Amino acid sequence: VNTAAPGGRISTTEFDAHGNTVRERSPGNRSVALGRTPTMETSMNSGIWAAIATAVLALIGTAYNARQQRAASRDTAQETAAATVEAAEATAEVDQRQLDQAAFHAIRTALQDQIDGLREEIGQLKAQVAELGEHVESRERLLRQAMVHVRAQNRLLTAHGITPEPVPAELIPWSI
What we know:
This protein is 72% helix and 9% strand. By secondary structure, the protein is mainly α. A three-stranded antiparallel sheet has the order 1-2-3.
């Protein structure tokens, strides 16, 4: 940024894209940087040359400022685009995590439902086994009682001289 003071004295301040001062030149240092001696500076300050020099320097400053503003806008646009990409990536990651959590929850719920169903089925099967066990015990009792009667009848037949039919081998354990 060029700042003109009365008498054609111009100071210069340069800034970076973030507005921080990078370099400053006082009017005297600026004249030396442009290759002017104090004598030349005095002659330029007089009359029309001073006005022309001031106008030219102001025009150059305006062009420089416009260029700096375009560069700053470009840098800002790039930073905004980068931030937008980062935000989109973060949003996509959050969305993916939410989808993963929903899928996990659905799978966990389905597995829990299956486990609950199997537990119920096991309970029913245990009840059936207990019922069948009682039925088998009841049949075994009846078979033992029948075998007691068969043995008693076989003894009566033998006592009357009649040979009884042999008891099948698979029924012998039940006759005890």
